[in-house]
Each structure stands twice: as structure tokens, then as C-alpha cells.
Amino acid sequence: MSKKKASINFDDAYTELQEIHAKIQDDNISIEEISTLIRRSTELIKFCKKRLRSIEGDIDQAFEEEVK
Predict the structure, then answer these.
(1) In sequence order, what are the residues at sequence separation of 6 or more whose Cβ sits closer than 8 angstroms to the Cβ of residue 37?
(2) Which of 40, 42, 53, 68 sits at 20 to 30 Å (Cα–Cα) from 2?
(3) pTM for the full model?
(4) DSSP 4-27
């Protein structure tokens, strides 16, 4: 998983979250698999939030520089 984490980007993380959502909707999924998917989705959500905050900071900085 660490290899995946190192090369992941926002779009990949979002796509994986959508895939996890679809899998969880399956009535035949086991509790163990749900647990694993929930843990992975938590990691992905944290990554996405961090990335979005970083992008927001970049945008804010660009606007501040534009005003100067």
C-alpha cells in the first residue's frame, strides 16, 4: 500500500473512492471486506482533504501575489 500511496494523485484517489462506494453497495460483500474498504477510504479521504487544502493555499497565494 505504501507504493500506491507514493504514486497516487487526487484523481486516482477520487476514482478509487468511487470504486469503494460501488463495492460497499453490493449485498454480497463480507464484513471483513467492508472493514478493509472503510479503512482504505479513510486514508483516501485524508489524502484528498490534504491535497485540496494544499491547492487552496496555492490559489490563495497566487491571488495575493496578483494583488501586489
Answers:
(1) 20, 23, 24
(2) 53
(3) 0.78
(4) HHHH--HHHHHHHHHHHHHHHT-T
